[in-house]
Specification:
Elements (H helix, E strand, L loop, with lengths): L29 H22 L4 E5 L2 E5 L3 E8 L5 E9 L9 H27 L8 H24 L7 H6 L13 E2 L1 H21 L7 H24 L2
Antiparallel strand pairs: 1-2, 1-5, 2-3, 3-4
Helix pairs in contact: 1-2, 1-5, 2-3, 3-5
InterPro entries: LHFPL
Membrane topology: Multi-pass membrane protein
GO cellular component, one term: membrane
Length: about 240
C-alpha cells in the first residue's frame, strides 16, 4: 500500500529560495567597486577644477588675479577721476560672449560637457554598488567608453586653453608679453593640472577597469538558479511518493 506524504506537497513546505534580510546585493565585482570609487574621485576632481577660477595666476595693478575658462578673481573698474581700481572678488563673466577669447568659449563648452559625462557615469557606478541588476559586463564596458569620451573632451579643453592667452585681458595680467602657449609673467594654477589629471585617469585607468566591473549577464544566472530549484523540487517529490 502506498503512503502519500501530503505535507511535502503543500506550498508552505516547498523550499522556496529567499534572500537573507538586510543583505545588499551589488551588480559590481571587486574590481568594479574600485572602478566606481575611482570614477567618483576623477569626476569630482575634474568638475570641481572646472568651476574654480584657479587655472591661471597673474597680477594686475599690484593685485593677484586668477582665471578659469569662464570665471575670474579680482578685476579692474573705473573709479573716481577715471582711475582704475581693483575689485577683489571672484565671479563669472556677465555673459558667454564676455569670455575673453573664442578659444576659452570653446574650452568652457567642451570641458563642461566632459565633466557632465564623467559625473553621470560616476553616479551610475555608485548606484551599481547597491543595485543587483543595474550594471552587466557589457554595460560596464559601455560606461567605460563614455568615460573615455568624457576624459577626451576635458583633455581637449585643456589643450584649447593656451590658445586664449593672446587676448588683451590676459596680456594685461601677464605683463603684456603673453601669447598663445606663452605665459609671460603668469603661471598655470593647480586647478588646471587637477582637471587634466582627472581626465587622464578617467581615460586610462577607469576605462580599463570598467572592462572587468560588471558581473556575468543576469539571464544566464537566472536560468541556472531555476534549474537548480527545479531539480530540488523533483527530488523532494520523488522522496515523498516512494512506497
Amino acid at each position: 500500500m502506498t503512503t502519500f506524504c501530503t505535507w511535502c506537497c503543500e506550498s508552505t513546505h516547498l523550499p522556496i529560495p529567499t534572500e537573507k534580510p538586510g543583505t545588499m546585493r551589488s551588480s559590481l565585482t571587486l574590481v568594479g567597486t574600485l572602478w566606481a570609487f575611482l570614477s567618483l574621485v576623477t569626476a569630482v576632481a575634474s568638475s570641481t577644477s572646472y568651476f574654480l577660477p584657479y587655472w591661471l595666476f597673474g597680477s594686475q595693478l599690484g593685485k593677484p588675479v586668477s582665471f578659469s575658462t569662464f570665471r575670474r578673481c579680482n578685476y579692474p573698474v573705473r573709479g573716481e577721476g577715471q582711475s582704475l581700481i581693483m575689485v577683489e572678488e571672484c565671479g563669472r563673466y556677465a555673459s558667454f560672449s564676455a569670455i575673453p577669447s573664442l578659444a576659452w568659449q570653446m574650452c568652457t563648452v567642451v570641458t563642461g560637457a566632459g565633466c557632465a559625462l564623467l559625473l553621470l557615469v560616476a553616479l551610475a557606478a555608485v548606484l551599481g554598488c547597491c543595485m543587483e541588476e543595474l550594471i552587466s559586463r557589457m554595460m560596464g564596458r559601455c560606461m567605460g567608453a563614455a568615460q573615455f569620451v568624457g576624459g577626451l573632451l576635458i583633455s581637449s579643453g585643456c589643450a584649447l586653453y593656451p590658445l586664449g592667452w593672446n587676448s588683451p585681458e590676459i596680456m594685461q595680467t601677464c605683463g603684456n608679453v603673453s601669447n598663445q602657449f606663452q605665459l609671460g609673467t603668469c603661471r598655470l594654477g593647480w586647478a588646471y593640472y587637477c582637471a587634466g589629471g582627472g581626465a587622464a585617469a578617467a581615460m586610462l585607468i577607469c576605462t580599463w577597469l570598467s572592462c572587468f566591473a560588471g558581473r556575468n549577464p543576469k539571464p544566464v544566472m537566472l536560468v541556472e538558479s531555476i534549474m537548480r530549484n527545479t531539480n530540488s523540487y523533483t527530488m523532494e517529490l520523488d522522496h515523498c511518493l516512494k512506497p
